[in-house]
Amino acid sequence: MLVASVVDLYFQFAHANDRVAMAEAGERDARRIVALVQARFQAGAEGRLALHEALQVREERAADLAALRQATTVLRERVRVLLNGASRSLARSIWPDRI
């Protein structure tokens, strides 16, 4: 049962890391878009609505990324509990931040 639980968590963790990587790329893109829209706004080529929407998307992407990072932390803690309360440093050495 323990082995099956660890294997299941391994794949959940791998999937979570993939989602974090995609969210990081999305947040990075949103920051670039905000910079572009701000430049266009200052040049008079974009309106306030476009700027507001770009800022909102950036904030949504940042919130999504934070939630996904928290989820990976929860998964890491579940592994620690499965390993009979091993210390955080031991859990990290067995279960790295990224798979």
From TrEMBL:
Q: Which InterPro entries match?
A: OMP_efflux
Identify the SUPFAM superfamilies for this entry. Outer membrane efflux proteins (OEP)
Domain of life according to the entry: Bacteria
Report the family membership: Belongs to the outer membrane factor (OMF) (TC 1.B.17) family.
Its name, as the record gives it, is: Uncharacterized protein
Tell me which species this is from: Variovorax beijingensis
